[in-house]
Amino acid sequence: MIKKIKLIALITGVIFFFILFLFFEIKHLESEKIKYDEFKNKLYKIESLNKNLNFFIFGEKKVYNLDKVNSNITSVKNCFEEIKKNSLYYIYKRDIEGLEKAFLKKEALIERYKAYNAINLSTVVYLIDLAKKFDLKNDELRKKIDFDIFSLFKTYLGLNVNNVISKNAHISGNLGIFYDFLVNLKEKLNEINEIREKIKDLKFDVKIQNFIEKFEKDEESKFETTEYILKILQSVFVILLLIYIYIFIKIFTLQEKLYVFKLMVEKSDNSVLLISPSFKVLFANEMFYKKSGFKPEEIMGKNAFTVLKSMFPEKVFERIKFHLHNKTGYKTITKTYSRGFRKFYEKIVLLPIYQEKEFLGFTFLKSDLTEEVKKQKELEYLAYHDALTGLYNREKLKQDIKKCKREYCLFYMDLDEFKLINESFSHDFGDEVIVNVAKTLKKYSKYVYRIGGDEFVFIGFEQPEFTAENVLRDLKKINFNKKIIELSVSIGIVKNDFKDYETLLNLAEYALKEAKKSREKFVLFNGEMYGRIKREIEIIKHLPSVIKNGELYVKYQPKINTKNMSVYSLEALVRWKNETLNEVFPDEFIPLAEEKNYITEIDMYVLNRACEDFKLFKNIYPDLQTVSVNLSGVDLIDKNIVSKIKDITEKYNIKPENIEFEITETSLIKNIEISKKILKKLKDEGFKIGIDDFGTGYSSLSYIVSLNPDIIKIDKTFVDEMEKDGNKIEMIKIIKYISEKLNLEVVIEGVESEEQLEILKRMNLFNIQGYFFSRPLEKERLIKFLKTCCKE
Amino acid sequence: MDKKPTYLIQLFNKRKDFAKMKKFFIFIFIVFVKAGYFTPIPLKNDANMLIAEIGKRIFFDPFVSKSGKIGCYTCHIPKNYYTNHIATPTGVDGYVFKRNTPTLLNIRYNYYFEWDGKYKTLRKCVKEALENRHETDITPERIAQKLKNTEYEKLFKKAFKNGLNGQNVLTALSEYIKTLTTPGSKFDRFLRGEGSLSEEELKGYELFVKKGCVACHNGVLLGGNLITKFGFMKERKTDDLGRYYVTKNPKDKYYFKVPTLRNITETYPYMHDGSVKTLKEAVEIMLKFQLEKIYTERDVELIIEFLKTLKGDLPDDKKN
Question: Is some CB atom of chain B closer than 8 A to the CB atom of A77?
Answer without folding.
Answer: no
